[in-house]
């Protein structure tokens, strides 16, 4: 049996707006869009992707799954993402080498420190 990782599903009250926010934040391309679903990928034929699917209820608790990103310059990326509409959040992480942010619908993600050479 062979499995290929297709995408991560993100429930969103407004999948088009949230998906577009992530496409711009990551520099990814839109591969499919409707009022109910919005899919982005690094490149049109490259997997995995992120698919934003409408869910009417709002987020109620800390996300059980989140994305981690490793930038070349953590401070610059955090500043860029905050200027783009992300918010710093405290989920009880304490003092760590990563920064926890949330997208406009409150989904947490982490910006890690630069990978050591």
From TrEMBL:
Please give the superkingdom of this protein's source: Bacteria
Q: Where is the signal peptide?
A: none
Q: Where are the transmembrane segments?
A: none
Ranges for domain VOC: 4-114
Q: Which InterPro entries match?
A: Glyas_Bleomycin-R_OHBP_Dase, Glyoxalase_6, VOC_core
Its recorded name reads VOC family protein
